[in-house]
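Entry type: protein chain
Record version: 2
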Amino acid sequence: KRTVASPDALTDLSIGVEADSYQERWLKEREKDNVAKGRKSIKILSFPTASEVMAGLRAGQFDIAAFPNYAGGAFVKAGQATMLLAAQGASPTMMSFRSKPVADAVVKAFNDMVKDGTYDRILDAYGMTKLPEKVIAIRGTGPV
């Protein structure tokens, strides 16, 4: 059974990942850090979908897989995988609305869910990593 204590432990591993994903970008940043520090490289293998990443993992094409939270959580919940390193960094999430009243209503609903515990219950049920700062707000001018 493999363990990964920190991102530094990814050195000298081959990792399957969904192409053009946050996880792929995060791994490439770790790879640059490794090279700069004189460590062995990370071999990153990109696939079109999370399903193809899982198929490659099962076939032994690479050592470990880096999935988006929703896919990784589903594989863990189904007993098909084990979580080795949760929450690769933090990435802001954005929603766009044409209407300010709709945007305001979404902000209020989300913040109400955080306050009453619904947000935590939903994300826990799906094994999802929670936002480090459980605050949603309109940035900038927002919709008009």
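Comment: Strands lie at 14-18, 43-47, 64-66.
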